[in-house]
Structures are given as structure tokens and as C-alpha cells.
Amino acid sequence: MEKQENNLFNPEILIELANTKMPFGKYQGWLLCNLPEPYLTWFHRKGFPKGKLGMQLATLYEIKLNGLEYLLKPLVKK
User: What number is the average pLDDT over the span 49-58?
Assistant: First the structure.
């Protein structure tokens, strides 16, 4: 039986989330993990962008909403 990879528990997703920069807007160039919660809340209300960035922002919104952003800080590459 082949082992199936579950993306929900893939640490690479969190590493990428911690090191991806916002490509547009008021916070262009900021690491996604450093985006302020009110900005993510605005996206939550208005709708996240389509595609990978939208998935990353929605994930980050849930992480920050639940007070778990401390999990991302050690993953930021210096």
C-alpha cells in the first residue's frame, strides 16, 4: 500500500507561508506572516484572491485568528 502525502500536515507549506512576500498592494514586499491581522480580516470579508496566494492568505488568516502565528516565526529564513 502506497503512502499518500497529506498536504494538511506538510511542514513545507508552513515554511513557504513564512517566507513568501506579498506581491501587490499596501503591503507589497512584506512577508505574508508579518501582514497585520486587520488586513487579513479585510481580505476575509472581501474575498481572498484566487489561486495559491488566496489559499496562503486564508491559511494565514486562520493561523492569526487562532493566535498561532508564533509557529511561523522560527520558520522565517534570515
Answer: 96
